[in-house]
Design a protein that fits this description.
Strand content: 15-25%
CATH superfamily of the largest domain: NAD(P)-binding Rossmann-like Domain
CATH class of the largest domain: Alpha Beta
Low-confidence stretches: 1-28
Strand order of the largest sheet: 14-13-12-11-7-10-9-8-15
CATH architecture of the largest domain: 3-Layer(aba) Sandwich
Number of domains: 2
Largest sheet: 9 strands, mixed
Mean pLDDT: 93
Length: 430
């Protein structure tokens, strides 16, 4: 197999789409259908009906009055029914929810049944991240536009699947938007535009943080198999979540990559499991600290923690030769030679993501394919986790070409032993 290099994705995006220019993109099948059909609704299927999937469906509904949720799929019937019940009974959303019982699918293969529905225009992929590469690839193969939550994979094998699916999507003029909503938030768009136009000068260092208390945890019920317990408690298993540096901290990492124009070249990290030591917390860490180095020598200090009773901080800091910026949702400021503070209005970025995706699908906005950028930021987080888990410095090419695959050998509601907690200096780098 061809080795993936630092610029592999960019070269191949260009190669795969050389015949398609920004000014000559063919109108989508959806846009063509809109011109002639009586039913001009934007039909959406939801794969993964937990809190984020339900929220994303609600965001899509609020993004456009013609959105209609027409199909839903989940591993568990209770989650599917709960999500459908809430959406279809809430006065704010119910008029745009029309999911017949035959379009409600349950099980590991539920996504395949949903994707087989020819009427769906785009799908929301919001299962635990470990399933995302397979679902993304299948959605593109089925000819669907895609909204996929971050992170988009939990290991390098999955990352390569997403990159390749993104290339296929672009060659077919399928739109892809990712749940890195800061890239759709006006305060961040305004800040990054100023950074890239030189108002900070040369960026010489960066830091980013997602430090907060603990999140939800579900105790195991006697009737749960290993697989069911892990899937219902997915935050705490690396094969499902990628650990919280990947599942949560990716937002902040993505902002720095965005500002720098691409991912770092290496990572040296540390972390551990100091407080969440009970087996109910699976096999993830509760804190990480990673130094990332970019191609120009600039370093970024990344820090994330999920421990109750500690200081909280969720933001990004860029230090340049002309000033310093600080950003967090709804807030962005530059201090220095070119002082600035965002004082505009932000539309809910979770809704704006879908506004922008629909604009891309219909041709009323710019064509969007965010597969590459979210794959790069996800791999940046994975690279940091690989370094912290093993105690080794990990280079980008190592991470991108790694054979690390955290997926179980089979997907069924059976026995699934929990992988041991990683020990730096002992856990091998794969």
């Amino acid at each position: 197999m061809e080795q993936f290099t630092n610029d592999w994705t960019r070269r191949n995006f260009v190669k795969a789409t050389a015949a398609i220019s920004a000014g000559t993109l063919l109108p989508s099948a959806f846009a063509s259908r809109l011109e002639h059909a009586v039913d001009d609704s934007i039909k959406v299927g939801v794969i993964g009906c937990g809190g984020r999937g339900t929220g994303a469906a609600a965001n899509a509904i609020k993004a456009h009055p013609k959105v209609k949720i027409v199909a839903m799929a989940d591993l568990f019937a209770d989650r599917l029914n709960s999500s459908h019940g809430w959406l279809s009974n809430d006065e704010e959303y119910m008029s745009q929810v029309s999911v017949p019982s035959e379009h409600m699918f349950v099980g590991f293969d539920a996504y395949k049944e949903l994707l087989a529905l020819g009427s769906i225009d785009y799908v929301i992929l919001a299962t635990p991240p470990g399933f995302r590469p397979a679902h993304m690839s299948a959605a593109v193969e089925a000819g669907k536009h895609v909204f996929m939550e971050k992170p988009v994979a939990v290991d390098p094998v999955g990352i390569r699947t997403v990159i390749e699916a993104g290339l296929r999507a672009k060659s077919r003029n399928l739109s892809v938007v990712a749940g890195t909503q800061r890239r759709h938030e006006r305060s961040y768009l305004s800040l990054i535009d100023r950074v890239q136009n030189g108002e900070l000068g040369e960026v010489v260092s960066a830091s980013c943080y997602w430090n907060q208390g603990g999140l939800w945890v579900h105790d195991r019920k006697p009737e749960y198999s290993d697989m069911e317990w892990q899937c219902r408690n997915w935050l705490y298993f690396a094969w499902l979540s990628g650990d919280h540096i990947c599942e949560q901290h990716i937002h902040n990492i993505d902002v720095v990559n965005w500002a720098m124009g691409g991912p770092p070249v290496k990572a040296t990290g540390m972390g551990g499991r100091q407080v969440r030591t009970d087996p109910k917390f699976g096999n993830i860490f509760d804190h990480f600290s990673v130094e990332y180095e970019y191609a120009n020598g600039m370093t970024m200090q990344s820090m994330c923690r999920q421990i109750d009773g500690c200081a909280s901080r969720v933001e990004e800091v860029l230090v340049g030769s002309k000033g310093r910026s600080v950003s967090r949702p709804g807030f962005a400021v530059i201090n220095g030679e070119n002082p600035w503070r965002f004082d505009g209005e932000n539309r809910n970025p979770y809704e704006q993501e879908h506004v922008d995706l629909i604009g891309s699908i219909t041709g009323s906005g710019a064509y969007l394919n965010e597969a590459q950028q979210v794959a790069e930021s996800t791999l940046t987080a994975i690279m940091g986790r690989m370094s912290a888990y093993t105690g080794k410095t990990v280079e980008w090419s190592q991470a991108l070409n790694s054979k690390l695959d955290l997926s179980p050998q089979s997907f069924s509601m059976e026995a699934l032993p929990v992988r041991p907690v990683s020990v730096p200096g002992k856990t091998p780098l794969i």
